[in-house]
Amino acid sequence: MTTALALRSILELAFIVLLIYGFIKEKKVIAFEQKIYRILFVNYRRYKRKKLYARMQKERAFRVYEGGSPKKTSGGKVHVA
To answer: What does the domain layout of the chain look like in residue ranges?
Structure first.
């Protein structure tokens, strides 16, 4: 028996055991799947939102321009965003 054949047999046996466990504990498996789905969905939404905000901030690129009309009492230039 080669190592590859032994490893393949162990993986097949583990798959069969997990399949039987899944049929027996179906409700727990479904709850676990839903929990994983929620975690992935929420994190994906956060990732997309963060990426959108970064792009919006980059596009805005607030620049300060010299100019404007200063009040008579301030006596200087006004920074306009």
So the answer is: 3-80
